[in-house]
Amino acid sequence: MASPEEVEQKYELITRGLKEVLGGDAIKAILTEGRSPKCYWGKCTAPTGKPHIGYFVALTKIADFLRAGVTVKILLADIHAFLDNLKAPLDVVSYRTKYYEFLLRAVFTSLGIPTSKLIFVEGSSYQLTKEYNLDNYRLCATVTEHDAKKAGAEVVKQVDSPLLSGLLYPGLQALDEQYLDVDFQFGGVDQRKIFTFAELYLPRLGYAKRSHLMNPMVPGLTGGKMSSSDPKSKIDFLDPPEEVRKKIKNAFCEEGNITENGLLAFIETVLIPISEMRLERMRGETVADDEEGKGASGSQKPFIADDAPEGTVFTIKRNPKWGAPSHYKSYKELENDFAEKKLHPSDLKPSVADAIVSLLEPIRKAFLESEEWQNVERTAYPDPNAKPEGKKKKKEKVYHPPPPGKGKNANATNAPADPNIPATEGATSAVVNVDGVKEATSS
Questions:
Q1: Whole-model pTM?
Q2: Which helix (H) or strand (E) is 188 found in, with range?
Q3: Which CDD domains would you find in this protein's record (predicted)?
Q4: Digit-coded pLDDT (tens) for 383-416
Q5: Residue 228: pLDDT band by 50, 70, 90 thresholds?
Q6: What pLDDT does 439 receive?
Q7: Residue 80 DSSP code
Q8: Which stretch of 66-80, 181-195, 278-292 has the lowest confidence by average pLDDT?
Q9: CB count, 10 Å around CB of 104?
Q10: Which of 91, 265, 397, 404 has the highest Cβ tally under 10 A?
Q11: CB atoms within 10 A of CB 9
């Protein structure tokens, strides 16, 4: 049995910053028993598009889970990817799965998070089994079309003529909770309908109802959702510093506007939580694992100035001619200053860019030092503009003989006859055959 203080400390770490928690009491009961909860995260890891830094929102929260001693199972959802409107061809899905694992491990290493309780599972390792498919058929015999459509409305692409796979998707995600043997599923608040679908239908199959933890959704750089299919809305994990700074400079960040502002949202859900984690680690508050931070790559400095006052979690640096730095003890303080136009976008953007460049540096370094990862990346996401390797094959020359009376021997043929040679010797004449083709005859 764990002490009430320990339970509260771990539960606070597990749930802080979340948008919504369904079934929190069940998680507390597990912690009280002294057991480690088991979590599953998988919707965002269907290996379709290339992962972008929007994944930091979920990964930062997963870092909290791991720090609290939660066993985290990351589903590399290859089957789900194939079902998602055929976004990922089957011949490249396996390489994209490997790419995701390389990347996610590099992110956790860069954050200094021990991965002893981090488990990667490929969906095809169990989703093609007889047992899983029989349960899927049982579910199909229970779920109405209306409920399946409603559950996937926020996460399955809605088209005029929907594919049957879109109706299967929510049920498969619900079954994953049982087959991955977890206590709670984690995802964005956009998956709430799928989560409540699972809470309703898993017990009807005789399986336990799980808890569900939801993160807020974060706008992209252009103000809408950060998407792999929109290059302007996202920053890739492997983007070089100059590309990161260019995208941040061009990001939507209207003065005083705190809604649909991707930069403010990223500060709230990623930069400040990472800064707080590093500050906690500096104070020796490592919660469940004393090894936390020891294998970290890259800078582990919080996003604050060296002379920041006690309690600061984020610093906005300025050019001295525009004023002194601003130090914030909470996101709310920073948001209020921005809303009241005390903090200008031209001051906000460079500080955000510096922080992101610092976060991505060890990940890019790990990629550049791994030949295997680079080979996987080339196969998983081939450059559509790349020219085919090898020299261009030269076109073979085909000889076409000149027509009669033309070409280099034309003069010899048309030369006047030698008076000393009889006309019947060596002379040639042309006749026309039945096919209309001229033929030479000798006389």
A1: 0.81
A2: strand 184-188
A3: TyrRS_core
A4: 877 766 555 556 666 666 777 766 665 555 555 5
A5: low
A6: 43
A7: H
A8: 278-292
A9: 22
A10: 265
A11: 17
How far apart, in whole angstroms, are the C-alpha atoms of residue 52 and residue 36?
30
Q: Is residue 234 very low, low, confident or very high in pLDDT (cuts 50, 70, 90)?
A: confident
pLDDT for 210-221, tens place per residue?
Answer: 999 999 988 888
Give burial (CB, 10 Å; 0-12/13-18/19+) of 409: exposed
Nearest to 316 by CA among 345, 280, 282: 345
Q: What are 276's two structure tokens?
A: 């707080």
What distance in Å separates the CA atoms of residue 96 and residue 123, rounded to the nearest whole number?
13
Three-state secondary structure call for residue 432: strand
Q: Where do the DSSP E strands lie in 7-151?
A: 20-22, 38-41, 71-76, 118-122
Beta carbons within 8 Å of 170's beta carbon, 6+ residues apart = 148, 151, 152, 156, 193, 194, 197, 198
Q: 189 and 197 in contact (C-beta within 8 Å)?
A: no
Nearest to 183 by CA among 354, 343, 21, 339: 21
Expressed in angstroms, the distance from the first to the final Cα of the chain is 120
272-287 burial, b for 16+ CB within 10 Å, e for fewer?
bbbbbbbbbbeeeebb
- Domains observed in the chain: 4-215 (3.40.50.620), 241-380 (1.10.240.10)
Strand partners, 120: 74
Tell me if residue 52 falls in helix, strand or coil.
strand
Q: Judge whether residue 232 has pLDDT over 90.
A: no
> How far, in Å, CA of 355 to CA of 247, rounded?
14
**Residue 420 pLDDT > 60, yes or no?**
no
DSSP code, position 183: S
What own/partner pairs with CB < 8 Å and gap ≥ 24 does 1-9 have? Answer: 1/32, 1/33, 1/34, 2/31, 2/32, 2/33, 2/34, 6/31, 7/31, 7/32, 9/287
The answer to whether the CB of 139 falls within 8 A of the CB of 178 is: no
Structure tokens that stand for 402 in this block: 């000149």
Type of residue at 109? T
pLDDT confidence tier of residue 287, bands split at 50, 70 and 90: confident
Q: Where does 97-248 show beta strands of DSSP type E?
A: 118-122, 184-188, 211-215
- What local confidence, expressed as pLDDT, does residue 391 receive? 55
CB 157 within 8 A of CB 190: no
